[in-house]
């Protein structure tokens, strides 16, 4: 009598389901983004896991059918064919397990990088936080789609006043960036939450930018607004890697909480997208503090972009 070999017990679907569970499990508490608990930048990994799970389910069914198949163990040729099929199924199973294990490592790397990214772009504890919704990401991606982001016509130098020009050939590229952070919408999102560790100023509070002046009111509320510490025009024109980011990561940089602060209407109008050193009659001590803050934020944004590019590579796109 010739011995037949069954294909290895399947369990592939269960193994790959564990990968999907890892993808949908909450990230560490300190890194959980607002509006969701998974690592959204691992969407390509999700697709890979779904594909492997479908293959695993199909292979499970083939293995079960093979193992249930009767074989005449007195027929050497039949047993040999049966065993050859078992070897083939086992090889497929081992291949899928290897892919699942590799994907599991990839998932862990994506989630770890997402944690680092969230920590890098966050403001101070208790500050406003930001995570774009899928609808916002898709709309932004649609506005970017017609652009050749591999050949952005970047300016070579700032204007004499220190601001970076995003007009002319760069305007079609900058417009979606600017429109992704419209001041009124951002102000509505932030509400009264702190920015960079500072609460929203109240009417009558001293204006830190201008000695002797106070925060004015408008329609019963303090006339202040969220201001980008590093202007969006500078990010779009000079930040290495920014245009290689996927739409979600671009939005995270555009609206990074670490890059926001409260400014009075007067200070915001005086600064606009120029260096604080160009502001007339601003408090010199405040200007120096702003220059130091700007350097800190620049470093954080550059670190975040580097991490995002690593994450995109780990996620397969």
UniProtKB/TrEMBL annotation:
Keyword terms of this UniProt record: Coiled coil, Signal
Stretch forming the signal peptide: 1-31
What InterPro entries would the database entry show? TAT_signal
Q: Which residues form a coiled coil?
A: 49-106
Q: What is this protein called?
A: Uncharacterized protein
Source organism (scientific name): Klenkia soli
